[in-house]
Amino acid sequence: MLAKISILLTGISFIVFGRYLLFNRRFYQWDLGPIDMGSYHWVFGIIFLIGGLFVVYEETKIIIRDKRKGQSPH
Questions:
Q1: Domains of the chain: which residue ranges?
Q2: What per-residue confidence (pLDDT) applies to 74?
Q3: What is the maximum span of the chain, computed from C-alpha positions, in angstroms?
Q4: Which of 13, 14, 31, 57 has the smallest number of Cβ neighbours within 10 A?
Q5: What is the 3-state secondary structure (H, E, C) of 18-54?
Q6: pLDDT at 27
Q7: How far apart are CA 14 and CA 8, in angstroms?
């Protein structure tokens, strides 16, 4: 069950990062400073959003399927 939750959190972090890149051109990293993502930053944002949504959808579908079958989360 912990693996499923970690995959779900990874998908959510992809969604958050994709939303950030969609609206912001510069990415601020604490050790490297500002990183300019270029004029197509919105493309990277859309890719991360779609990937994150896919991961969250698939993992949620698997969790719901297992709950309906009555399988143990272990």
A1: 2-66
A2: 57
A3: 49
A4: 31
A5: HHHHHHCCEEEECCCEEEECCCCHHHHHHHHHHHHHH
A6: 74
A7: 10
Q: What are the C-alpha distances in Å from 59 to residues 38, 40, 69, 70?
A: 32, 29, 15, 17
Mean pLDDT by 10 residues, the chain (74 residues): 90 93 80 80 92 96 88 59
Dist. CA 5–CA 8, nearest whole Å: 5
Residue matched to tokens 């719901």: 64
Helix, strand or coil, per DSSP, at residue 68 = helix
- Calpha distance 67→73 (Å, rounded): 8
pLDDT for position 73: 58
Q: Which two tokens stand for residue 15?
A: 């969604």
